[in-house]
Amino acid sequence: MKAVALTRYLPIDDPGSLFDTELSPPENPGEHDLLIRVEAVSVNPVDTKIRAPKPQEEPVPRVLGYDAAGTVEAVGNRVTLFQPGDKVYYAGDITRPGSNAEYQLVDERIVGRKPETLDFAQAAALPLTAITAWELLFTRMPYRFEQGWRSQHLLIIGAAGGVGSIAIQLARLAGFTVIATASRPQTVEWVKSLGAHHVINHRQPLAAQLKALDIEHVQAVINLADTDAYWSVIGDIIAPEGHVGLIVEPRTPLHIGDPYKAKCIGIHWEFMFARPRFRTADMIEQHHLLNRAAELVDAGKLRTTLREILGPINAANLREAHRCLETGSVIGKLVLAGWP
Ligand SMILES: NC(=O)c1ccc[n+]([C@@H]2O[C@H](COP(=O)([O-])OP(=O)(O)OC[C@H]3O[C@@H](n4cnc5c(N)ncnc54)[C@H](OP(=O)(O)O)[C@@H]3O)[C@@H](O)[C@H]2O)c1
After folding, report:
1. Which residue among 58, 81, 115, 137 is the one 20 to 30 A from 159 at the CA level?
2. pLDDT one-digit tens code per residue, 33-91
3. Among the three residues 249, 269, 289, which one is the final residue of a domain in this structure?
4. Does 309 share its domain with 226?
5. Quick check: pTM over 0.90?
6. CA dihedral sign, ordered 90, 93, 94, 99
7. Considering its fold, how many domains does the chain have in total?
8. Which ligand 1 atom sits nearest the alpha carbon of residue 272?
9. Does residue 72 share a domain with residue 49?
């Protein structure tokens, strides 16, 4: 089968950083595995973080890729949720070979049915970021999607990227008053189009901009960007008994005492690979939430965050996607669709 792989961890402008190759299709499916023919993939910062240069070599080509849509070809002997021919979308498991290959094995419990109203490319944009945003807001933080959080202000830092683009929509559906941060005219426009009630600029002081909106404190913050850079200001603008959601590993130890302690702030981590990685008893929740997101899409309540299709799935297009993501300026999601 066709695949894009690496054996060395090189800068992205090195053509050897990701190369086209032929691999044997995966064998020996686990009892809950689906064998999926990959039709489209999207690319996330996690791909670039794993691929980042380091003095290490893989003895066999390693396939990355943690967002895909495709068709179920075969199923393991205890699979109950899907059958061959089903169209699916999923993020997968960081501990297994990824989606940048024509065929991939994925545990059925972390796979959802593809939204019917989206094509494979539009669907591939969604799973990793939808899982992240949903688990952060509605599993780790104390909010529940159905309850209606109208009196609560939610600040989303770094809202125009992949995670923010779906988080804005989900938070808005859940009833929050959404304040998104964006720093360029095109990202301001994008976050407004996704439903942000207010937009402020993360390159300018946040507290002053909130005050100008007549907002003294926000009840919830999700920081989808540099954790260290915003830690101090979040402590200032978060309301007493508020909640802060984090998804980016800090570079330095965080001071979790005052003002966080004085205000009794809840601090919540999300890592969307935790459930598959540790095979938690509730890993099937990712299947349920992807199906829920598909229902919202098909009901016209949630839209794809696909912004650009870079072409078919090959090494040159994947290197271009990694290069763009490494600039930190991608809007929505980049997708590769079809095989050359
Ligand atoms: N823990 C998890 O489960 C999990 C899951 C997914 C992602 N992540 C991590 O979360 C981060 C965001 O992921 P993503 O996919 O949303 O990234 P992304 O798509 O690359 O985000 C790009 C956007 O971030 C904004 N941005 C860049 N620098 C910023 C800064 N200093 N402050 C605020 N915003 C900034 C930019 O908006 P402007 O142009 O408007 O500045 C840009 O449009 C990554 O580090 C990723 O690895 C973690």
Report:
1. 115
2. 999 999 999 999 999 999 999 999 999 999 999 999 999 999 999 999 999 999 999 99
3. 269
4. no
5. yes
6. negative
7. 2
8. 3
9. yes
